[in-house]
Amino acid sequence: MAATLARRIVRPGVLPLCSRPPAWGRAAPRSPGLLLAQRRAFSNNKILVELDEGSGVATMKFKSPPVNSISLDFLTEFCISLEKLENNRGCRGVIFTSAIPTVFSSGLDITEMCGKSTERYAEFWRAVQESWLKLYGSNMVTVAAVNGSSPAGGCLLALSCDYRIMAENPKFSIGLNEAQLGIVAPFWFKDTFVNVVGHRVAERSLQLGSLHSAPEAHRIGLVDELVPEEKLQDKAAAVMAQWLALPDHARQLTKSMMRKSVLDRLVAHREEDIQNFVSFITKESIQKSLRMYMEMLKKKKS
Amino acid sequence: MAATLARRIVRPGVLPLCSRPPAWGRAAPRSPGLLLAQRRAFSNNKILVELDEGSGVATMKFKSPPVNSISLDFLTEFCISLEKLENNRGCRGVIFTSAIPTVFSSGLDITEMCGKSTERYAEFWRAVQESWLKLYGSNMVTVAAVNGSSPAGGCLLALSCDYRIMAENPKFSIGLNEAQLGIVAPFWFKDTFVNVVGHRVAERSLQLGSLHSAPEAHRIGLVDELVPEEKLQDKAAAVMAQWLALPDHARQLTKSMMRKSVLDRLVAHREEDIQNFVSFITKESIQKSLRMYMEMLKKKKS
Amino acid sequence: MAATLARRIVRPGVLPLCSRPPAWGRAAPRSPGLLLAQRRAFSNNKILVELDEGSGVATMKFKSPPVNSISLDFLTEFCISLEKLENNRGCRGVIFTSAIPTVFSSGLDITEMCGKSTERYAEFWRAVQESWLKLYGSNMVTVAAVNGSSPAGGCLLALSCDYRIMAENPKFSIGLNEAQLGIVAPFWFKDTFVNVVGHRVAERSLQLGSLHSAPEAHRIGLVDELVPEEKLQDKAAAVMAQWLALPDHARQLTKSMMRKSVLDRLVAHREEDIQNFVSFITKESIQKSLRMYMEMLKKKKS
Fold first, then answer.
1. Cβ of A250 and C181 within 8 Å?
2. Inter-residue contact A273 to A186 (CB < 8 Å)
3. Which of A105, C38, C118, C189 has its CA 20 to 30 A from that of A38?
4. From residue A116, how far is each of A66, A113, A120, A123 by CA, in Å?
């Protein structure tokens, strides 16, 4: 892992690349027009990316059945796709949504946290960090079109965008519910959450591991807007257009000013945070409670 | 005082013990079952503590007439009681309420701030700090059932809990009204307040020394919920049960993550904060205005 | 500039004087009664100051047609007037309002940012900083009676007061709309804004360069209260009386506790902030977009 890190070229002012080399080749060069034609889509296994070159808006559609859980493979695709778009001057904004009915993303894949080696746990966690650093620090306008439930890591993904629109279905819920599973949201999940809903709401919601229904999520400011599900994508496009009406440079510098201290905090404590994750997750008591949770999920399905 | 401090044994990760040795013996050992039977109560002069061993929920009832003012004796009992419960594995949560009609707590006892020696002022302030460090940093779930008015130090006590329920009586008021008395809430009162209501509401409320009626306190987020007075204790028990449904370990780590920076700030500036208090309170102008305030209170009574 | 700075006498605990010597003489001495009689007004070109010695409340009326734009001359008068009042023991509060219909202040004068020398840019920016340091850190009670639109620097002026009342005219708007002009609000504008509306509202509003209508500004907490325009001055006087009912000393210490960290941050990075401003504003791309903006404003007028 250390070797992989050392080999990385980190450009100043740009978040470092994803630590795993992409399966399908190297990252997109500066002339992405060669790769992407008008409305040309590129897809891998788990994420479908469509770029509308007219508007400069890409859509990332999560399509990893059954519930868009965030595995190492998912994260690798996510990082590569985001990096490609970030380097593509023709792309100014990204809308994140799900291709799977009723679920936006079920969060970090629990199978990645059970019965694996410590090296693998570390690799997984580094990729989680990387994805968040890229997304929270993106120069592009990022809009989450939350068209289903979105617990834990799925919620973080939405929280890290510039704007959140949710389908106004009261059956859909969203929240950082880690405490319900006996685990603890790391400090940068918390920082991201506090920046959106404030200290008091975050303290209560994190301690209770609350999953908020769409209307409640709207009331506490976790999402910015609710719309009927059939209007969600149109609304996301309209919001994106509103944000893209601003000059990129001023908007980007402003965004960086708002988010820099929280991004810097993880960058400064990154290895420590990986160690914390690995030593926490390898505890027998935690492994046991995650196995029980997975059993429960399996029973639910059958 | 320094000697008392030096003698204290501070366990890592656990807030230090109260600085005054308890009048009735040493702190409860790790096997508190020996001391407390099912629903067995222990009481001193000013606080009645009842532990329901079935639910693991204790109730601390303030019963220091006429208005539950927070004297050094009150603080000593408070620290010892909280420490006993904290060390009792059978106790997972505490509900704070008042045995005195219409008053939750009138705040720090002004007679402790008038005409005493500097040593006594320092001892008093250290006990105020200690109580807050213990309560704000408690591993237990803490719920304030605010069944009466709660100015200044009484408000801080409620603010330091995990959840605040108030009787919906518009005659009851709550707030950090120190400025009204010509004194200043210390920085950690302010930090605690900001963590609950946000910077703007805190700035305005602290500068005006506002006492908020129950409905207003609810509107600004100072209390989480209002219920009819006769339902207050049942509601507190129900909220407690909801919080206790979470695994202790994850909830405790989450709580610590949310509160650590504010707790650490006092720990780092503790002696300085005591010196500030002592030098402020011993000013002739402050002594004079506190004496006038006490005269006014006496006249009100008669 | 360095020489000017070095010559300044900075009293501990008091914000430094404005860097430009007043055109009409030196700052008011400690016995301002010699200068100001009951309701005696002093006026320069751009700001009318009236002090009611009975109530101890001054009014600063901006009267710099056509739109109270904040030029270096305006800032110089502002600093001197505020300093005079700050040093006048008979003055305990200031109400800021506009003598020009429909505009409170249009913000920093764009002509100060176009086609000038770097020395002049630096001098201008130092005066902007100075005015904010004086206003945000004032010991007096400061109330903004916002009787017209108030974009950018005009909004900052209102945000830096203790309380904001706005005429409930939906045509009036207020906000830090710098991003709309392709420029970026500096970090201390942002800090001031976050302290009023919280992180999330600030992040969204700053990135979009939003100008909020009066009702919306009230809803997001940017202003504290809306009143019909004809009642604005009376309301401001009533609010002022409420704040002045508190003992000055306790209120001032409380205000300083709430604002000190944000004030200190600019003081610590002042020269760096000036350099940032100068190097940003002298970029050809920024100069071009400001010139285009001015052209647009001129066309609008004719």
1. yes
2. yes
3. A105
4. 22, 7, 6, 11
Place of tokens 């002004």: B110
Touching check for C262 and chain A: CB below 8 Å? no
Chains that touch A (3 or more CB pairs under 8 A): B, C
Side chain identity at A65, as an amino acid letter?
A: P
Q: Which two tokens stand for residue C125?
A: 């920016």
Q: How many CB pairs under 8 A join B and C?
A: 56
CB A192 within 8 A of CB A162: no
Secondary structure class of C249 (helix, strand, coil): helix
Nearest CB to B187 within list C246, C257, C259:
C257
> From first to last of its 302 residues, what are the pLDDT tens digits of chain B?
333 322 222 223 333 223 333 322 223 333 443 344 455 566 679 999 999 999 999 999 999 999 999 999 999 999 999 999 999 999 999 999 999 999 999 999 999 999 999 999 999 999 999 999 999 999 999 999 999 999 999 999 999 999 999 999 999 999 999 999 889 999 999 999 999 999 999 999 999 999 999 999 999 999 999 999 999 999 999 999 999 999 999 999 999 999 999 999 999 999 999 999 999 999 999 998 888 888 888 887 77
Measured on CA atoms in the order C249, C251, C257, C259, is the torsion positive or negative? Answer: negative
Q: What is the DSSP letter of A191?
A: H
Neighbours of C296 (CB within 10 A): 9
Report whether B67 contacts B103 (CB < 8 A).
Answer: yes
Closest to A163 (Cα-Cα) out of A210, A226, A205? A226
ipTM for this model: 0.86
Amino acid, res. A54:
G
C83 near C11, Cβ under 8 Å?
no
Quick one: closest CA in A to C209, which residue? A246
Instruction: Extract the runs of DSSP E, i.e. beta strands, from chain B.
Output: 41-43, 47-52, 57-62, 69-70, 93-98, 102-103, 107-108, 141-146, 148-151, 163-167, 173-175, 212-213, 225-227
The alpha carbons of chain A give a radius of gyration, in whole angstroms, of 18
- Taken in order A246, A250, A254, A255, the sign of the CA dihedral is positive
Task: Report how far residue A251's alpha carbon sits from residue C209's, in angstroms, rounded to the nearest whole number.
Answer: 8
